[in-house]
Design brief:
heterodimer; A: 291 residues; mainly alpha; 2 strands; 78% helix; B: 279 residues; 14 helices; 0% strand; globular
């Protein structure tokens, strides 16, 4: 009797969420693997043709897709470095003996809440018309011109906006790490005569290593999967020079109507993200053992 | 010497802040200019603060409608997520068998799936559900809420699971002896204890759902169902040659977020840090 009611409670508590989760995440994921082996234009009445691994073979020769992977890697490397560098510097400044540090912290975190889409729109105005205006007004038109029309500068613009969005977020995590640092160790180092740099490099950095791994993981996966900023700031342009992988998949499926082929790209994208995550996690685990 | 370094750090900090806030300044000053004034000087303060473009943007964006839609979607999705995920996580922790462990593992493992990988098949599955049950999953706020619950489930269960593991069972056992059934044990005793995690889940989900763009874009095509990011995006697309209007529209969308931030700053900063650290 007791056993049976326990089972009923279990189902009552767990089943609703499992049902929703299965229909929204699990089922589409599995069906998606199937879709990646067919050729289909998305029209329900049109025929779905089984093509085996053709989609996967094709995507490695797809210049636009390979280029988008290149942009994504380049963008991710620079953004991750810049975001972490700035985030950590902000955290050190804000936890130091600065006047009005709470106000500064509040402001630096604000862009993160506004979201990539709207930030991208704001910066679009700045990188096009405001930059042109500054260039004409100051005569420095070598630096201040419409950045989004130049392939290289447009990618730099993407890095800047992503950094502007995420540095404050990463700062919050570093602040947490710095504040969890045992004060007495830092004090002891000072008493022993360690200078500012020595304390920073030898004491503080090793102690905030756990925060560093978290931040690295978060920025890596956020940057690699970026879509909103890409969509609103450059829409992949000029000439697809800033099209990232997430956006390439979106375009392949919904703009060009290649549902099966686009889904094969989406599966490759998943494998790349999963591999990145697993490598990151295994490195983290190893380091935690050493600490 | 110490004092001097403090002043220098403060000055550097504030210069940084000014650089950081420059884009907001650009939005605010240009939202009040007319076209000619804007092109004369994009950096200067406006001559008059007229709400004209603001009001125009508000009506063209159908702002109040979009705001209401966003509010409904965010609030209802989060209410369901908090209730369902906390119940699920509690059962999974307290019934320590192989099934529970497997379910939890699946929740955690699926967190790495990027949205782009499931977006297309998801639309197909929702279409089938509609064909079978005649419940409109696509082009309805209810459908969007349903999908938000699915996408938010993993993280919410994960956060609750981690917290519930640290709560001793003794309290719940005492209540069970007193004759409470599991439903009341959970709602009267466990759920109130979970409050810190509930706040974290709510904050993280507000940030995500309020700003979510791609899922609503794929699900909602009717104009009257648009959420704030959708209406901002379509408005911005129409008025890129009228930057003053575009900026007024952007300012309009930012203001509610800033009000929310200033009102709940303490919880937001704490919640974001807690959510990240447990990842």
């Amino acid at each position: 009797m007791k056993k049976r009611s326990d089972k009923a409670w279990y189902i009552l508590f767990v089943a609703p969420l499992i049902f929703v989760f299965t229909t929204v995440v699990i089922l589409p994921f599995m069906i998606g693997i199937g879709y990646s082996f067919i050729s289909w234009d998305g029209m329900p009445l049109n025929e779905k043709l089984f093509v085996g691994f053709d989609n996967y073979i094709r995507l490695f020769m797809d210049k636009r897709f390979v280029a988008s992977a290149g942009h994504t890697v380049l963008f991710t490397i620079f953004s991750v470095l810049l975001i972490n560098l700035l985030g950590l510097s902000f955290a050190l400044i804000v936890t130091g003996k600065m006047i009005g540090r709470n106000l500064v912290r509040t402001m630096l975190f604000m862009p993160y809440l506004i979201g990539g889409l709207i930030l991208g729109f704001i910066w679009k105005f700045i990188f096009t018309d405001v930059f042109k205006f500054i260039g004409e007004a100051t005569g420095w038109s070598g630096v201040f011109f419409s950045w989004l029309l130049d392939p290289k500068y447009a990618l730099v613009a993407m890095v800047i906006v992503a950094t502007w969005q995420m540095a404050g977020y990463i700062m919050i995590i570093y602040i947490n790490g710095i504040q969890a640092m045992p004060e007495d160790i830092v004090e002891a180092a000072k008493v022993d005569g360690a200078g500012f740099w020595q304390t920073l490099m030898r004491i503080k950095f090793p102690l905030i290593m756990p925060s560093f791994t978290i931040c690295l993981f978060l920025t890596l996966s956020n940057c690699f999967k970026i879509f909103d900023v890409n969509f609103s700031l450059t829409t992949g342009g000029p000439n697809n020079a800033t099209e990232m992988m997430a956006m390439n998949i979106y375009n392949e499926i919904f703009s060009l109507g290649n549902y099966g082929y686009g889904q094969a790209k989406a599966i490759i994208f998943f494998i790349a993200v999963a591999a990145l995550t697993l490598i990151q996690v295994s490195i983290t685990k190893k380091r935690e053992v050493e600490m | 010497m110490k004092r001097l370094s403090r002043i220098i750090v403060s000055i550097v900090g504030f210069l940084l802040c000014i650089c950081y806030l420059f884009p907001f300044y650009i939005v605010i000053v240009n939202a009040f200019k007319n076209r000619k004034e804007l092109y004369e000087n994009m950096l200067a303060l406006p001559q008059t603060f007229t709400p004209e473009y603001f009001l125009k943007a508000m009506s063209k964006m159908n702002f109040l409608r979009a705001f209401t839609n966003s509010l409904i979607v965010t609030a209802v999705s989060i209410a369901f997520l908090v209730v369902l995920a906390s119940m699920t996580a509690w059962m999974l922790v307290r019934t320590n068998n192989r099934l529970s462990k497997t379910i939890f593992m699946v929740f955690v493992a699926t967190m790495i799936i990027p949205f782009q990988t499931i977006m297309m098949p998801l639309l197909q599955v929702m279409g089938w559900i509609k064909n079978i049950t005649h419940i409109p999953m696509v082009n309805s706020l209810g459908g969007l809420i349903y999908m938000n619950i699915g996408f938010g489930a993993s993280m919410a269960v994960f956060l609750y699971h981690g917290f519930i593991k640290t709560i001793p069972v003794s309290l719940e056992e005492a209540a069970t002896i007193d004759g409470c059934n599991k439903f009341w044990v959970f709602w009267k005793i466990v759920f109130p204890i979970l409050k810190p995690t509930t706040v974290t889940v709510m904050i993280l989900d507000v940030i995500w759902i309020w700003n979510d763009y791609l899922l609503p874009l794929l699900i909602l095509s009717k104009k009257e169902l648009r959420t704030i990011p959708l209406s901002t995006s379509s408005f911005f697309g129409q008025f890129t040659n009228e930057w003053n209007l575009a900026m007024a529209g952007l300012l309009l969308t930012i203001i509610p977020i800033i009000i929310f931030y200033l009102a709940a700053q303490k919880y937001i900063v704490k919640g974001v840090a807690a959510g990240a650290v447990k990842m």
